[in-house]
Amino acid sequence: MASAVAAVMLITTASAAWAVPDLPANTDCSANAVLAKLGVVEDRAAANMLAEALRGPSAGGRCLLDVGDADPGAANAATRRGAAGAQRVFVVGGPAAVPDSWLRSTLGISDYVRIAGGNRWDTQAAVAAAIIAIATGKEVRQYDGAPPSAPQLPPNASCEEAAVIVKLGVVEDRAAANMLAEALRALSILGTSRCLIDAGDPSSGAAPVPDQVASAAQAAEVYIVGGPAAIPDAWLARHFDLAAQERVAGADRWDTQARVAALIVSLAIARSPAGHDAGPDEGIESIG
After folding, report:
1. pLDDT (tens digit, 9 = 90+) per residue, 246-276?
2. How far apart are CA 264 and CA 236, in angstroms?
3. Exposure of 256 by Cβ count < 10 A (0-12 exposed, 13-18 middle, 19+ buried)?
4. From CA 14, how far away is CA 109, in angstroms rounded?
5. How are beta strands 64-66 and 221-225 bridged, if at all?
6. Element counts in the chain: helices (H) and strands (E)
7. Which residues on adjacent β-strands are paired with residue 113?
8. CA 133 from chain center: how many Å?
9. Which residues contact 54 (CB under 8 A, 6 or more apart)?
10. What is the pTM (predicted TM-score) of this model?
11. How many CA atoms lie within 13 A of 115 on its CB side?
C-alpha cells in the first residue's frame, strides 16, 4: 500500500510545459485494444484514459483505435489490423455509436467488452469503474443496455471526503476530472462522495462561484486537474482555503489524462482491500 501511495505522489507532482496536443501513438495492440469514435471528444478522452490504464505498471503496449463513423464496410487498415490481433478488445461507447453489427461485419470481431452508459457522463463513469476493476484484478462489467438519458453533468453529492477542481470549459480536462470524481466516489467509504468544482476562467481574473469555494473547503483532499498555466497556484491560494491538494497535470491534455488514469489505478490499489470489491456495485462486479 505504501508503494501505491508513493506512486500517486510521483504521478501528481510531475511538472511539464504545455504543448500542442497530439494523441500518443499506438505501440502494441497484441494484448489489449480500445475502440472508440475518436471524433467524439468525451468518448475519446475516456478511451484514451482506458488505453493508458491498460498499459500497466511497465508502461507497455498502448492501443487506441478509431472506428471513424462506423459506416458499413468502412474501417482504416490500422483499426482492422489492431482489433484482429488483440487478445482483448474494449469498445467505449454504446451500440448507437459503435454498432455490434459493424464490429462483426467490418472488423470481424464478436468477442469484446463494451463499456458505455446512458449518456457521455455515464460512459465516463463506466470507464472509471473499469479502470478500478482492471487495477484490482476484477472483471470489467459489460454494458447492460442502459436507456439513453439527457447528457447533463451529474450533480455533486458530498464534498467532505474529496473534491476535484478543474476548468470545466476545457472539454478534455473536464472529462478527466469527471472520471477522477467518479473514481473517488466509487472508492469512498459510503460511495456517495462525488465533488467536481469549476475553476471557471482564472485567466480572466474572475473569482470562482462562492458555493464552489465553500464545497471545496469541506474536502479532506483536493485534486487539481490541469497545469498552473490553466489554474495558477496564486489564484488557488487567493480564492480557496484548501486543507490538502495534489495537482495532476502533464505536458499536454492527453498526458494529463494519462496521469489521471494512473492516479485512479494507484488510488484503487491503495484503497481496495484484497478480496473485496473496489467500490459500489455499478460497473465493478465480475461478469460471467
Report:
1. 999 999 999 999 999 999 999 999 987 653 4
2. 23
3. buried
4. 39
5. unpaired
6. 9, 8
7. 90
8. 13
9. 31, 32, 34, 61, 62, 63, 90, 134
10. 0.86
11. 34
CA dist., res. 133 & res. 277, Å (int): 8
The model's confidence at residue 58, banded by pLDDT at 50, 70 and 90, is low
Mean per-residue pLDDT for 112-125? 94
Angle at 62 between CA 97 and CA 270, to 5 degrees: 95
Instruction: Please give the mean pLDDT across all residues of the chain.
Output: 85
| Cell representation of residue 61 | 503496449
- Give CA–CA dist 135/50, Å, rounded: 11
Measured between alpha carbons, how far is residue 63 from residues 69, 132, 183, 257 in Å?
A: 19, 19, 23, 15
33 by DSSP, 3-state: which? strand
Q: Is the pLDDT score of 238 beyond 90?
A: yes
Amino acid present at 194 = R
163 touches 135 (CB < 8 A): no
**Cell triple for 53:** 490504464
Helix, strand, coil % over all residues of the chain, rounded to 5: 40, 10, 50
Quote the CA–CA distance of 112 and 253 in Å, as a whole number. 28
How many Cβ atoms sit within 10 Å of the Cβ of residue 195?
A: 24
- Phi-psi group of 184: left, alpha or beta (phi > 0 → left; psi -120 to 50 → alpha; rest → beta): alpha
For residue 53, the model assigns a pLDDT of: 94
- Residue type at position 233: D
- Give 57 or 13, the one with higher predicted confidence: 57
Extended beta strands in 59-187, E state? 64-66, 88-92, 113-115, 162-166
Pairwise CA distance, residues 282 & 74, whole Å: 34
Residue 34 · residue 87 · CB < 8 Å? no
Beta strands in the chain (DSSP E): 32-36, 64-66, 88-92, 113-115, 162-166, 196-198, 221-225, 245-248
